[in-house]
Amino acid sequence: RLAMEAYTVALKYEPDNKSSKSYLEKAAKRLAASGDAVDNMSLAGQSFSVVSEWDKSQRGRKSSQDTRTHYDAKLDLKEAEKHKVRGNAHMANREYKMAYEAYSAALDLSPKGPHSHVYYSNRAAALCYLERYAEAANDSEQALKMKPSYGKAHARLGLSRFFMNDFKGAIRAYTSALQHDPENAASKSYLAKAKLKLEQQNNQKGGKVHSDVRRLLNDPDMHLMAKKALNNPNSELMEDPEMQSIARKAMSDPAMMEAVRAVPQVQSP
């Protein structure tokens, strides 16, 4: 009888299951052979009663689990916030390794919570102070995936890229940071530094040209000759191959042109 009840329950969920049907028939025959009459309607009623009770227990269990999960999530978030506060205190005291550990603990408790982008961004700041710039960039990017408008994460991405000598990346990140926080003095300062560094980096690639720039700035006579030649392309000075070379470079290189036009600086003895 218990077997029949079990297979009847199974067929409620899988009415076309041949195996359950077969075993249900076998169980019914054995029950009949034992002399225990089978009232199908009564059995069905008992079976569906079992199903109903099972359904109720499952719904109750799920509701209890959902309530507990929600409670645990709130508790984890509360603890994560405590770790964030500790991390901020460590940052203020320049205890950057301890700050990193505190933010990591917050992320362990709440990796995808409502404040997780802050934990990632703050940990990126700690990593920058620890000179772990690649990791800082990764944390900043993770924060921005969660909240693209978070200005601090853009700024920390800019800082990490600046110290990785990725000045183009730093410029992009700080430009984005200032779109979200236009008055941030640190972002403005580092954006200017990144632009200057990129310019210096580009200038170094034209090594010989810029050695000529230094020569012009340090040699007043040479500077004056170059300036005259550039202002008057038909002058006799332009017959000098060196002057021709300087003129060509000046026409193609803004730094060289600026050096030619500048007032020559006489070095002090």
TrEMBL record:
<dbReference type="InterPro" id="IPR019734">
    <property type="entry name" value="TPR_rpt"/>
</dbReference>
<dbReference type="GO" id="GO:0006620">
    <property type="term" value="P:post-translational protein targeting to endoplasmic reticulum membrane"/>
</dbReference>
<dbReference type="GO" id="GO:0060090">
    <property type="term" value="F:molecular adaptor activity"/>
</dbReference>
<feature type="repeat" description="TPR">
    <location>
        <begin position="80"/>
        <end position="113"/>
    </location>
</feature>
<keyword id="KW-0802">TPR repeat</keyword>
<dbReference type="InterPro" id="IPR011990">
    <property type="entry name" value="TPR-like_helical_dom_sf"/>
</dbReference>
<dbReference type="GO" id="GO:0016020">
    <property type="term" value="C:membrane"/>
</dbReference>
<protein>
    <recommendedName>
        <fullName>STI1 domain-containing protein</fullName>
    </recommendedName>
</protein>
<keyword id="KW-0677">Repeat</keyword>
<dbReference type="InterPro" id="IPR047150">
    <property type="entry name" value="SGT"/>
</dbReference>
<feature type="repeat" description="TPR">
    <location>
        <begin position="151"/>
        <end position="184"/>
    </location>
</feature>
<dbReference type="GO" id="GO:0072380">
    <property type="term" value="C:TRC complex"/>
</dbReference>
